[in-house]
Amino acid sequence: MNKKFIPGAVVTALFAQPCVALAASDPELQAIREQIQQLKTAYEARIAALESRLQIAESATPTRVATEPASPVAQAAASGNDNSFNPELSLILSGTYGQFQQDAAMAPTGFAMAAHIPPEQGFNLGESELGIRANIDTDYRGVTTMALSPAGGVSVENAYVQTSALGNGMNLSFGRFFSGLGYLNEQHAHVWNFTDQPLVYRSFWNNQLGEDGLQLKWLAPTDTFVELGAEIGKGRGFPGTDRANNGSGASTLFAHIGDDLNAEQSWQAGVSWHDTRRVNAQADGVPDLLGTIGGVSNLFSGDSRTLGADFVWKYARNGNPKDVSLKVQGEYFRRRENGQLTYDLAGVNTTDSYAVTQNGWYLQGVYQFMPHWRTGLRYDRLDPGIASVGPLNAMNVIANYAYQPTRTSWMLDYSPSEFSRLRLQLARDLSRQNFPDNQLFVQYIMSLGAHGAHTY
Amino acid sequence: MQKLCHLFLLLAFSLPAHAALNVFACEPEWAALTQEIAGDKAGIYTATTALQDPHHIEARPSLIAKARRTDLVICTGAELETAWLPLILRESGNANIQPGRPGYLEAASVVAMREIPTRLDRADGDIHTRGNPHIQTDPRNFLPVARLLAQRLGELDTPNRAVYAERLQKFTQSWQAAITRWEKQAAPLRGLPIVVQHQGFPYLSAWLGLREVATLEPKPGVDPSAAHLTRVLADLRQQPAVMVLYAAYQNPRPSEWLAERGSLRAVALPYTVGGNAASNNLYALFNDTLQRLLAGAAR
Fold first, then answer.
1. Whether the predicted model's global pTM rises above the 0.90 cut
2. Which residue ranges form the domains of chain B, and what is each CATH number?
């Protein structure tokens, strides 16, 4: 109370002063000044007295206080303004320079009817990824990731709600999320170890399988990590065809197990299963037996079932991944598509049965040979399979490409901190028959703001 | 599918029924403290070793599996584990150990924090908004944490509440006696100028009255560069120090480089329980730390 009074009195006195000066004579002013001076000296004396008493008290406190530093003053963290409830914000900035010898838009041989996101040529701004995350209440947590396209426009990459109070090892998420199948699928582009996804992910999942729906995961109460997951959804991401009907358009099952071998080595392995029905999936520029220039447009309707297996093994010297570490991972996917194919929509337009089993895999190793510096090697391979084509289309549709696309990539990256990364990548791309390509990428990935924990 | 379900039910029921309270300790010092307070009433899992940098741990599957069956998570907090712990807690599907629940204990919440930054900018390096999290280098900080731990253990395991209270009392007494002994031993260290590799010793320095005159990392968490080391070396000519301290998990090279060129000793401190062969419990940790400091200070 006294403390409050001092500045109050002084301020009042100071403000009053000019007014008083106008009306009052010099001796009166002098008297007021003296009063203020007296007030000041009186309080200074009292403060000094208090300080000395405090010092005496401090030196005489019993042992318990002496052996224990003062406990925190009211846990300053909860500074009660509205901003403190603001969610975590993060922004990823990335860009690439790509140099190729062949047209990047060309799909791997035998995969013209699969997904294809060609890498960008020349200088390019990548997608800027804006993330907003926060606990919604005691039961839910919300996560949004928006991709700001360099051409303008915003797309919602992730927007899901996750339960945090189910317990018993259950985790339920709903909304738009990356499917939990495989190992790489859930990882965002900024944590990829190479500039691009493996060919099998590009062709089989359009880089990453995203889903609008529900995901339920259950973690077994065992010492070994055993996780089972199931998803149902709209079938939004390739190979789904984004149907808007009752019921679900795609379902996924996956299981992961993992453990440590010792303090330095750990591993995880998994299997996944994806099932969807494709309806009027159109593919353009598909080569045919007649050698139609620019290819033809085909339509496929039928079942698409994919089986996958994945593993990852990590080593870190003394268990410090920031120091020297090695990571080896591989994944395999096998897809069976069975249904009706309509050949050459714009021309003969004939429909007959079509079935094919395709597979693909990659194996990669990333070695951090010293803090901040990593190098990695990846080998990709696809097998377009031999299709069984109904008699009406047998003379038009290529059933056997007799070529297995492959690619070998090498990368070197430097991360001055955990928030920034610069990368050089070279690739020998033999994924298009008769069009061997040497590719060069330079990339930067920077992250601003909140930086959440990364998955294994 | 049915077979699969049976398999998992079998798996779930064939697990050993947990006899004790399961405790997940993020760092070895909290595992050791739990051992002091809970004795054989708790099964303790230590998530990291003294040779690991607790800032940079991967959210490994094994950690998630352990957190799933845990009744109490005890961690330093103050953002030390922010790169891995939140993910482990979320993925564990264990509602009892989420922040805010009795099963989640942050040691830093009851400790007077040092070096709380006044400016938050990533350009300043790896800074923690709630202050320097390396609180385990001052033994006095274990007293309030032990009180909180005993209280939580009692809440989670009511039949053994009296056991925890009794063990807490015993620990507090012998720990205070040990602190008095250590403080007497450490008297010659008071006012001694030292250099630290990482800003990981403010609590130790404050406790023993060590005077930190330089830091080898130009900014927290940023590796010492040759240019910065040279500058530190030049500064030390003006303002000499007696020793340079680094933790067991850190790369000794920068400290050794400086020790070779400046006339000071590089001293590796265990930093936490298990940091060297001698530091196998909390008492041994500080006995060994003081021995090393006194040896480093001896001329």
1. no
2. 13-179 (3.40.50.1980), 187-297 (3.40.50.1980)
